[in-house]
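ok so heres the complex, four chains, lmk if somethin looks off
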Amino acid sequence: MKESFSADSPPAPAALAAKVRTLAPTMTRSMQRVAEAVAGDPAGCAALTVTGLAELTGTSEATVVRTARLLGYPGYRDLRLALAGLAAHQLSGRAPAVTADIAVDDPIADVVTKLAHDEQQTLADTAAGLDTVQLGAVVAAASTARRIDIYGVGASSLVGQDLAQKLLRIGLIAHAHMDPHLAVTNAVQLRAGDVAIAITHSGSTGDVIEPLRVAFDRGATTVAITGRPDGPVSQYADHVLTTSTARESELRPAAMSSRTSQLLVVDCLFIGVAQRTYETAAPALSASYEALAHRHSPRSR
Amino acid sequence: MKESFSADSPPAPAALAAKVRTLAPTMTRSMQRVAEAVAGDPAGCAALTVTGLAELTGTSEATVVRTARLLGYPGYRDLRLALAGLAAHQLSGRAPAVTADIAVDDPIADVVTKLAHDEQQTLADTAAGLDTVQLGAVVAAASTARRIDIYGVGASSLVGQDLAQKLLRIGLIAHAHMDPHLAVTNAVQLRAGDVAIAITHSGSTGDVIEPLRVAFDRGATTVAITGRPDGPVSQYADHVLTTSTARESELRPAAMSSRTSQLLVVDCLFIGVAQRTYETAAPALSASYEALAHRHSPRSR
DNA sequence: TCACCCTTGAAAGTTATTTCCACTCCGCCT
DNA sequence: AGGCGGAGTGGAAATAACTTTCAAGGGTGA
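and the predicted structre for the whole thing:
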C-alpha cells in the first residue's frame, strides 16, 4: 500500500467549504493552510498551479496534492476543475439587482444586463400568455388566404413590415400598410378568405382600428395583435392574439417591450404558416437566399 | 512573432456558445469540429485532456490548442477551466432546456415555446458578448452628434428605422436610409462629429458598406452593428458592436434571431443616449407621448 | 535517551500542454 | 495544364504541470 489517504467521498460539488471545516481536525498544519486558502478564495486558487498554490501557502507541491486527495479528489488537477466550477457559481450568484429599474446613472454595462433581462421576461410572459388555439386559427386562415393586409402605425408599423417581409419571402401575398388612409381604401378590396391583421399595443389606435373595421365588414378574417385584448380593436377581430405588457419606466418606453412581444407573436405566426405551406415555402426561402448571396462581397471564407 | 492567433478578447465567461458561433466562420474545418464539441458538451469536454479532446474530434493536440487560443484563452488549460465553470453553471442553472430545433410537424404550442426560448437565448448571448466599452464610446459619440445616419437593408432596415424613430423621439437628428443610392449621396454630407451607423448581420452587405465607407472618409464617427466583426464592414468602422449568431434552421431563418440581437443592441444604445441627454430627452419623450394620446379612442381600460 | 512514526519538502518520474516543423492539399497564376 | 505559394494540419520534440517517491527532520512515548 502506498501513501494513501482516506478519499472517502465523491468529488463534492459545492459543499467544499463545509468539507474543509469537517476535515480540518484530521489535517496536519500544512494541509490546513492549503485547505484554508482553497476555501477562502476558490476563484483565486483555481488560477494557480500546484507549484503556485504551494508557494502561496508556504508549503510544497506534495502537500497540496495530499490535501486535494483528502478532500476527495483524485489529484490536484480535479480539485482545480471543481474550484473553477465553484467560482463561476458564486460570481453568477450575486445577480446585480436585475429586477431594478434602469436608472439614469446606471453604468452602460448594467443597462445591457437589465435590458436583456427585461426582454427575456417579456418573451416568457408573452409565450405563456399566448392563446395557441387562436394562433392556430390565424395560421390556418393566413396559410390559405388570397391576400393578407397588415395595419400598424408608429412602432407597430415596423412589426407589420417585418411580418409582411417574411410572408412575402415564402410566396404569400402580404402587404403592410403604413398610411392609414391608403389602408382603409385598400381594406375595401378585401373579401371572405382574405386576412387582415391589426397591430396595436394600446388596442385603441384609431388609425389601425378603422381599416380593420372595414375589412371585418367586408367579411375578411380579421386578427388583432394587441396588449389590450379588451380594447376597442378587439370588437372587429375574429381572433385576438395578446401580447404582454411589461412594466415601463421613464427611460424604457412601453414601445420597447411591446415591440419584443409583438415580434415574438409575429414570428410564431410566420413559422406556423411556413410549416403549413412547407411545400412551397421551403423552395421560396432558399430561392430568396440565393438571390441575396451575390449582393454580398465575395470574401467571406 | 510566434504562431499567434488573434486572441482578441478576454476569457469570456458564459458567452462561450455565442462566441463559438460568432467565430465559427473564421475557423478552419478542424477547429470548427473542436469548437462544436466544446459548445455542444462543455461538461464532457471539461473532463478531457488535450489529447482526449483531440482524439474525440479526430484532430490533433495542436488544433485543440489553436482553437482555445482563438476563443480568447491563453491555452487549453484555461479553456478547460472555463468549461468546468460553465458546466457547473448550467447543471445548476435550470432544467433540461428546449434545445431541439423547430420541426415542420411541431404543434403550434411547441413552436411558441421553442421560439421564445431561442430568442431568450439569443438575448443572453448578445448581452454577454457585447463590448460595453465600444458601446459606451458609441453612446458618447451619438449623444453629441450633429446628425446620425443609419444604414440597413432588408431585415436590418427595420432595425435601423426603429433606432431612428426612437432617437428622433428624444430630439436627436437621426435618419434611417433605406435606399442605398440616397444613403451614399447623403453620406457625403457628413463630417467630423457626425455619426454613421451601419447595420448588417452578414457584415458584407455592399449596399450598407458603401455609405459607411463614404462617411468614414468624410471623417464621421462610424459604427458597425454586425454579427461578423471580422467582416468587410468593420474596416470602415471606428466602433464595432457584435450581435450574436444563433443557430438557424430551415424554418427559422438567420434573419429572425439576428433581428432580436440587433434590436437589443439598438435599445441599449438608445437608453445610453437617453441617459446622457436626460435633460432634453425626458421632456421630449413625454411631449411625444402627449401628442399621441389624442390619436387613441377615449375609452381605454 | 533512544526508537519510532508522523509530517514535510526536495527531487525524480510521469503525464499533460505547448511549440515547432514538415508535409499536404487547395487555389491561383502563368 | 503545370507548378508555385500559402494556409491548414498533425507528428513529435520541448516545456510545463502534476504526481510519486523517498529521505530528512522533529516530536512523542517508552
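quick notes: The beta strands of chain A are 148-152, 174-177, 195-200, 221-226, 239-242. thats all i got rn
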